[in-house]
Amino acid sequence: MSSKRQVYSVAEVNRKARMVLESGIGELWVEGELSRVVMHSSGHWYFNLKDEQAVVACAMFRNDNARVVFKPKDGLKVQMLARPSLYEANGRYQLIASEMEEAGKGNLQEQFEKLKARLAAEGLFDEARKKPLPILPRKIGVVTSPTGAAIRDIITVLTRRFPNIQILLVPAKVQGAGAEQGIAKAIDYLNTRGDIDVMIVGRGGGSIEDLWNFNEEVVARAIARSAIPVISAVGHEIDFTIADFAADVRAPTPSAAAELAVREKSDLEDEIALCDRRLGQSLKSMEQELRLRLNRAAHSYVFREPDNLLRQYRQAVSSLKTRMGDLLKLDAQQKIQRFARTHDRIAHLLLSTVQQSHQQVDELGMLMQHRVERRIERDRQKLLQLRGQLRMLNPLAVLGRGYSLTRRPDGVLVRSAAEVKKGETIVTQLADGNLVSNITDKE
Q: Which structural domain range is residue 347 located in?
């Protein structure tokens, strides 16, 4: 019987089990909480994924985890694309991950990118809109939770760097539903006070869900419209929010924001002391220079011979006065001569122009008279021509050649003997007069 058995080694069994798992189920998305995360020196990640009811061993190899944009840590809830497998060496069932993202981050990340792109297109993040931070603020406004670690870090850093700095905390809810409205109102309130030189807006680190209120549009627009420079300090160094892009300056942490807001008092004191020394040295050098100039002046010719110098200046002034009088007279004479020459030239030009104008008027008059006479002659010739044509067309002109016109008493022209009757009177028009006849007979 033993010769008919098919006996498998443990390695073969594990191999078959692995093949069944990998081919029978395939890749799928799974959600759970990370635990026992180990980042091996080889670059591979090993961890467990668990929920309330079960736990499964997982691995994510270097080529795949290089695309993950966050650092995995125990307690972080994630979603990952994985295929079930089995580690043949010890028979342990595991999931091999190829993609990983924070749970819920896929949808939130998409919202983040869309809002970021829209506000950027409006110019809300343009560098030209960024306001510079004041060199030495007197009062700093802080918008954050009054109970969080962020305010403690900010106060610690500010008071250490500048012990007598004034800090005004405007408490605001920084997480949960509606927190973004409170953050925006706190920013607007600080802008109404008139005594705030710079403000810090932020909170400590957390998941993307914890920080999401700082990704809301209402917060970004409140920061953008703020007349006070705003330092955004949300989360840790790797966390970026919409508020960071809208702010005038982005700080990686609340502590870093406090360092950006105010300089070390001791550094300022050192600079003031240095400026004081430089000013003292400059004043001393200036004093020495002025003293040297005064000594040179005291021994100069001006102070040794003031009367001679004054007499020389008087002579120079008198000479200049005489010379100026001569120049004024000469200038006046030259102007009178130029005026006379100009007057003569203008008079000559006017006379010449008038003479030419008279000549042109005479020539134009003669030309006009000649043209009028020619026009009258042409019109007279044309009139005679028309008169001749009219005579030729006149029907009475033929009467001179022996013809006559006969009319009835009513003036109607008689063209036929049939048109008159016996006893009627007719009028015959001849070239030199009319004949009145009575019809006695007709042939």
A: 301-354
